[in-house]
């Protein structure tokens, strides 16, 4: 019998405070779209969003591109001890996912059994609603 | 001109406690008083102050000035180092540079923090936007993710991490300044069976935040010589790396900034890892000790467990490790915690280790770890090699 991990979907969390340069990411989450910064000159993506290119230090070559968000688990940790408001929701699963465009994204993994979780597991985005109409990016197994 | 033209002439340390009812400046005053008493220097001879990071002090953007005024110090160089757990060793390096450059002559390096009882931090970093909404707690969760990745790439024998935990705990039993709550013997089974916090991080992997202070008095070797100071400790190699591989999106997170920092420190010192007489690595989580062994060249990357299996880390052993217990077994006085590892190295090289004195005092290697980045290992890494009497 598999053991479903719990999740943090019911947690009443502080809405994440956007910075001036990360607003395009958050605005896109209203339509459950994942936007990631792309440096045209370096030909590479970066995440989390920055005010400048982590490759060149120049601001002019950055643009936002929509990506699928599919990828594989780079690492994970089953959280057994949390603080309010997450306390009482353990065990939940924190993951770092390498999305196919080549950036690492940290999030919670939902709809996954503890036996199923492994590094390399294919995952896709799951968008958890936030009270202000935005969504929080999470991941779930691709098969779910 | 180099850092080896400077000398540590005294060290001081308060007892580490779970929560102190004494003000952070009272802890600082105890360190200053102790250093003046031990070295015979007058307060008026101190013309430099370099502070470590401090969770208690960080709400005040004028922390180093305020501390100078509280202690009645008149200064020509006043500075705070904000690279977290790297800041005690980083402060020593900056003190040496300032003395060497002629900015000042004698520096109080002061590491004081009451993070357990008075945490004034309001960190502005990636976490509010990209980590806290996921229930991320910072260090234990970061090390859970790091440990799983390490295990995936290299394999991990948890009993070997347990061996490090037990060795450090045995050393803490010999350290009366360590936090009393932690001064109880443990076994490898106790380690393996301790409560899971964030798999695979267990309770006995983790440091306990406490209150306390420590410090060093640093001057030029010339001044130390003129004053007839009998015991000095000299920094002979230092390396520092912050946000290693910051310009890359996906990296091997089992490689840390200690790789370049260690290479630089060893090159300056003209030594190799096999020459190191005792090792005092920053220890916020047990696995960090092993990863530093790999990055600093005691063994190959990924071979830490084998190196631990083959090495005796007791104070009487082949490579004495954190002989006062390290922070995990003596307690972590907040961001001053790196002082636990650093002060012990200086104490050992001055031959004042008492019941835990190491035999080989030719040199010691001290490190720092500071700051938790987004899904990697740690933000800052430092390595410093010390030797007695140059």
Characterise this structure.
The complex is a heterodimer of chains A (144) and B (390). Chain A has 144 residues and is mainly beta. Chain A has one helix at residues 23-28; strands at 34-39, 44-46, 62-67, 71-79, 92-99, 103-109, 122-129, 135-141. In chain A, the strands form two sheets. Chain A has a five-stranded antiparallel beta sheet with strand order 6-5-4-7-8, with no helix packed on it. The two termini of chain A are 17 Å apart. With 390 residues, chain B is α/β, with parallel strands linked by helices. Chain B contains 13 helices and eleven strands. A five-stranded mixed beta sheet of chain B has the order 1-7-4-2-3, sandwiched between helices. In chain B, strand 5 (196-198) and strand 6 form a beta hairpin. The mean pLDDT of chain B is 97. The chains are: A mainly beta (144), B alpha/beta (390). Chain A binds chain B through residues 8, 11, 13-14, 16-19, 22, 44-48, 54-55, 74-83, 86, 89, 92, 94, 96, 98, 102-104, 106-108, 119, 136, 138, and chain B through 126, 128-137, 140-141, 144-149, 152, 195-201, 246-250, 253, 374-375.
Silhouette of chain A: globular
Rounded to an integer in angstroms, the radius of gyration calculated over CA atoms of chain A is 16 Å
Mean residue pLDDT of chain B: 97
Spatially, the strands of the biggest sheet of chain B line up as 1-7-4-2-3
Main beta-sheet annotation of chain B: 5 strands, mixed
Order of helices and strands of chain A: HEEEEEEEE
Q: Low-confidence parts of chain B, pLDDT < 50 over ≥5 residues?
A: none
Measured between the Cα atoms of the first and last residue of chain B, the distance is 14 Å
Please give the count of helices of chain A.
Answer: 1
Biggest interface, which chains?
Answer: A-B, 41 and 35 residues
State the end-to-end CA separation of chain A: 17 Å
Tell how many strands the DSSP assignment of chain A holds.
Answer: 8
**Uncertain runs of chain A with pLDDT below 50, 5 residues or more?**
none
Helix content of chain B: 25-40%
Please state roughly what percent of the residues of chain A sit in beta strands, choosing from under 5%, 5-15%, 15-25%, 25-35%, 35-45% or over 45%.
Answer: 35-45%
Helix segment tally of chain B: 13
Rounded radius of gyration of chain B (Å): 19 Å
Order of strands in the sheet with most strands of chain A: 6-5-4-7-8
For the largest beta-sheet of chain A, the strand count, sense and barrel status come to:
5 strands, antiparallel
Please, what is the average pLDDT of chain A?
95
Query: What pattern of helices and strands is seen along the backbone of chain B?
Result: EHEHEHEHHHHEEEHEHEHHHHEE
